[in-house]
Amino acid sequence: MLMLREFDDLRLSPYTGWTRNHWAALADHLLLSARRYASASHARVSFPGPPGGYGPDVDALEGFARTFLAAGFRVAGEDGRDPLGLMEWYAHGLATGTDPRSPERWVRLDEHDQAKVEAASIALVLHLTRPWLWDRLDPIVRERVVDYLAPAVGADYPPINWIWFQIVVEQFLASVGGPFERKDIEEGLSFTDDFARENGWYADGAERAYDHYAGWALQFYPLMWSEMAAGDPAADSRRPRYLERLERYLGDAVHLIGADGSPLVQGRSLIYRFAAATQFWAGARAGTATPAPGLLRRAASGIARHFTERGAPDADGVLTPGWHGAWPPLAQSYSGPGSPYWAAKGFFGLSLPADHPVWTAVEEPLPVESGDYRRVVRAPGWLVSGTRADGVVRVINHGTDHSHPGTHLTDSPLYARLGYSTATSPVLAGAHAADPLDQAVVLLDEGGRPSHRTGFETLLLDHLPSGTAIGASRWQAHWVTPETGSPDHGYGRAGTVRLGPWIDLISAVRGPWEVRLVRLPATAVERGPLAEAAEERGPLRVGGWPLPASEAVHTDTAAVSNGTMHSCVVAGRGLDLRGVVAAQNSSPLAPWTLVPWCATTTSALPDTWYDVAVFLGGQEPDRAPVLSWDGPALARVAWPDGTDDLLDTAVALSGPGTPPL
Questions:
Q1: Which residues fall within 8 angstroms of residue 54, CB to CB, at 6 or more apart?
Q2: Sign (positive or negative) of CA dihedral 221, 256, 245, 297
Q3: How far, in Å, CA of 546 to CA of 361, rounded?
Q4: What is the three-class DSSP state of 189?
């Protein structure tokens, strides 16, 4: 959006140029553009595009509720000043949408579960804008709104972030004298306590589900609820705990943003785009001690600028399903044309007035703009490497698969790949989305089908004395014929399973390089009734970083470049095959995705270590790490920066609780 550049202020915001004026102008642009797609009563906002998996009625409710979020934040931060008449506009929609006799009425919470999600947004905005909207509604309309929200009481909610939707709705109902069950709130709070993990992180339920929901939902709602319920001893006693978790989480989160403002292309619901900024505004509103306000704004504004300068919203002011521009395969099966407007959560900073420190502080650099780092994030099992020279953040994944240890599902490209970054996207469409290639270590069966790793066991997450990050995991290779007809929620899928050998993997990460050690142990690792490994050992294949490109490249090497970024795999002994796969229209970043790979020509040998150096960086490497062995279990890595590391593979594979190498 070129129009935003007129607000640039490089004195206040030396990294992005963005100020509160940019955010306000963007919100206003989206809100005014949305009015073109509203029904006469404003109750339904039906954006162009094919209907989502839940049908046009749900799509229209999403269009209202999600844009209502942006409107509410906008007016709340202006202390009720409302030159666009947002509250009056949405008041008309509330009156009609909650009228059971209206042909434009909303889908009710007891008619479709998705209405439970949207009800939370409606309740939250009614709380934030109470003096300027709720208190001015006709008493009959207030009564109808309460009746619309009331089915949340005592209802069943999925045991994930959705629990917070019930808590928020019932807390609002309690505040306006509506029906609510204290038991629902108390049990929900207790249940969500079980989501808490190390260092302030939350998992989205019982599984190893770590993605952007950790910030834009699981950090956001606890503090908003405690604000809604202020004065209640339960809320006041919990708030310090929620605040501490958010503060610790944000310490990791600022290390996951690229210098160009890109979040990680990882996890489901990526079409929400700059909703990824929500967590930083939540820190500002809650008053976290760290990170500093200037860094919080730098992270949030960088995300928004990243998308607005790359096609979101589009020329018609619409947020389409996609990442930068429209790319429909990025949406899950439930997503409709109104779904991308959960991006409105990213405008949460506008609920803070112009004189708040997060708006007046001078921007501070992101960690990746200050220097190189290697960070171990234990909850999701990530080794994070940021490099200042190219501004790229990479994650090597030894802990996230949206499943449990020991399961045998297909690998979701959004969760179970070995690597994610701010400069690449996993292959998300086409054959290699279902059959792992990029950032994957697989065995090939007799038909050439690659194995999956979901259900792996995390063995190690640590630093070596030199600061090199190291991780290890183990899994039983398996092939899955997925069940047909199951909806796509971005996770791995169940089906008919054929088991293969166990695979051990050790990663050492330094700068733009990962040294990857792979072994197929000769003896099956005992892990229960399905532990016996099949005798067959097919060829081993290792895939590298998937590089976005404007055109296909055909090469006999395992190195590719798109002019600004470079991706390669440097194969060690035994990995004699190599090449690049060019996959068309397979990710939202570019027309082509180029994946370097290497493989054995014959079946992988048992109890043999294979090594691969995997690279992603802004400058073509002049040399790769060199690996040598000081014995059967001691690997020595000489890194290009002159660092030498000794890896004790026996210690790395001995499991959790082992001492550092």
A1: 112, 114, 334, 336
A2: negative
A3: 38
A4: helix
Place of tokens 């234990």: 378
Q: Are 144 and 97 in contact (CB under 8 A)?
A: no
What does the DSSP 8-state code read for residue 324? S
CA 285 distance to own-chain centroid: 22
Read off the tokens for 648: 């004790």
Q: Encode pLDDT of 300-338 as tens digits.
A: 999 999 999 999 999 999 999 999 999 999 999 889 999
Q: Give the mean pLDDT of the chain.
A: 95
Dist CA 462 CA 376 (whole Å)? 6
* pLDDT attached to residue 20: 98
First-to-last CA distance in the chain?
50
Q: How far apart are CA 492 and CA 328, in angstroms?
A: 20
| Per-residue confidence (pLDDT) for residue 329, from 0 to 100 | 96
Question: Residue 522 gets which letter from DSSP?
Answer: S
Residues of the chain with pLDDT under 70: 1-2, 488, 523-536, 657-661
- Structure-block tokens of residue 515: 């040294």
pLDDT on residue 489: 77
Helices (H), 176-219: 182-193, 213-216
Cα distances (angstroms) measured from residue 363 to each of 5, 288, 337, 377, 390: 17, 16, 34, 25, 20
Residue 334's closest CA among 116, 489, 162? 489
